[in-house]
Amino acid sequence: MILFRAALLGGNPGEEDIKVLSSAGEEDWKKVASIAREQNVTGLVGDVVQRLPETINIPEDIFLYLQAEREKTALQGCRMAVLAASIIQNLKDAGLNPVLMKGPATAAFYPKPELRSYGDIDLYFTKDEFEKARDIAKSADGFSLSGDGSFHFRKDGVDVDAQLLRFDVSSPEEVILMLSAHAMRHACGTGLGLRQVSDVAMACKSLEGEYDPARLEKALKKAGLIKWQTLLASFINNRLGIQIPSPGKEKIPDTPLLKIVEEGGNFGHHASGRGKAMEKSVAGRKLDTVKRLVRKLPFSLRYAPKETLRTIVSLTVGNFKKNA
Q1: 242 and 205 Cβ atoms separated by less than 8 Å
Q2: Same domain, 56 and 11
Q3: Alpha carbons 178 and 283: distance in angstroms, whole number
Q4: How far is 24 from 324, CA to CA, in rounded Å?
Q5: Both 33 and 106 in a single domain?
Q6: How many structural domains is the chain composed of?
Q7: How do beta strands 120-125 and 158-164 pair?
Q8: For 193, what's the count of Cα atoms within 13 Å in the CB-facing half-sphere?
């Protein structure tokens, strides 16, 4: 977390943190590399490791691994940004106005955008344009529909996910709201990692002075995400060292969210049994996802009851229509 916080803040660890890092042994550094991989933040962590004093004894294999990951992440980030721009231009030529969220768009909030890793491209369309976009995508490689109504296709080997735009993202408040809602859905679903949490933190930090906390709180309240954002703000303030406004009147422990982040890593891919489930049939994978959603219901209903019920209805209706 010392290395990750330094990466987000764009600087080097402080004197006290350097003392902690200096006391780390070989097994500690192996754990650092393992956690960074599971959370999909090796590029960010590797960048800070590169700048540490030579007095810190990092095992050579760990050091080289993190440097290789840093370079790989940077190259992939640049490639994805170019590809996303190309896809958006093609859709604009067809008369559409897709909104790019997460991935390349969110990376711009980081001190070094190319080191914010991502594996797919997320596009959002207004209700008026969504069906037209879906019709255009039907001829693309790997086109498929999801139970929630979104659709998926591939471009040059990269996954592209398209969803209905629920919020107007023309203002800084709505950008933060969108990222918070995205993080919430993963926390209440298969899992949430540090990268998705840091997206919200970096958006708040980068847009500080541009967004109105009171207006954001009003939007969060309308979306039913006040409790969730309060929990998220607690985690960001305590664990990431980035101070963002909390909409809640009282501070709440961030332990429930920390548990979710630790147990599953990036999108919950490293949670117990998830790997085996992904090797199963489509029906088997869906069943595993449903089980995880059910297990998370106490958390979901406590911190985001309105969105949880909306998601359940959406998935139920979507799957019914798909199988009809």
Answers
A1: yes
A2: yes
A3: 30
A4: 58
A5: no
A6: 3
A7: parallel
A8: 20
pLDDT surpassing 60 at residue 208: yes
Distance separating alpha carbons of residues 31 and 300, to the nearest angstrom:
30
Average pLDDT score over residue span 130-149: 90
Tell me, what's the pLDDT at 320? 46
CATH number of the domain to which 155 belongs:
3.30.460.10
Lowest model confidence (mean pLDDT) among 17-21, 150-154, 312-316: 312-316
The pair of three-digit structure tokens given for residue 173, joined into one six-digit string: 């408040």
> Contact 179/229 with Cβ under 8 angstroms?
no
What are the tokens at 200?
């919200």
pLDDT in tens, 238-275: 999 999 999 987 779 999 999 999 988 777 777 666 66
Note the pLDDT tens digit of each residue in 176-189: 998 999 899 889 88
Three-state DSSP state, 60: helix
Amino acid identity at 55: T
Calpha distance 288→267 (Å, rounded): 14
Instruction: Match 């995400």 to its residue by tokens.
Output: 225
Between 2-16, 107-121, 298-312, the lowest mean confidence (pLDDT) is in: 298-312
**pLDDT per residue over 54-79, tens digit each?**
999 999 999 999 999 999 999 998 88
283 & 225 share domain: yes
Question: Which residue, 164, 187, 215, sits at the end of a domain?
Answer: 164
Q: What is the DSSP string of 205-225?
A: HHTTTTS-HHHHHHHHHHHT-
| Residue 125 CB-density burial (10 A; 0-12 exposed, 13-18 middle, 19+ buried) | buried
Nearest to 74 by CA among 35, 46, 36: 46
Domain that holds residue 58: 2-73
| Listed residues 17, 45, 73: the one ending a domain | 73
For residues 46 and 85, membership in a common domain is answered with no
